[in-house]
Specification:
Blueprint lengths: L1 E5 L10 E8 L7 E7 L6 E6 L5 E3 L7 E6 L4 E6 L8 E8 L13 E2 L3 E3 L4
Antiparallel strand pairs: 1-2, 2-7, 3-4, 3-8, 4-5, 6-7, 8-9, 8-10
Amino acid sequence: VQLQAFGGGLVQAGGPLRLSCQTSGRSFSEYNMGWFRQGPGKEREFVAVISWTGRTYYHDTVKGRFTVSRDSAENTLYLQMNSLKPEDTAVYYCAADLIDFPQSDYDWGHYWGQGTQVPSPA
């Protein structure tokens, strides 16, 4: 599975901004898909995951502001980000895994795309 994330860029305080992750290779609909981010000087952290059944999971810091979705016809994963805050500044990565999320003792994310930068809101 190949993943390519895009959509980061200049954004006004409060957003919105939508990230996309185009996939190719094996069947998109089989995979659980997710977004992670790594801010300056921080560890990579989970943002949102959508399972192959459509169940969603969100980090507490983005609940109510971000929405993860997927379009199987387009083989694309999305992250709609509203009410952006300076602390959302990070490189955002999309990931895919056949393993359900979350899982203890498992570093989730078998496939990763390159990151896309979301800068601090202007």
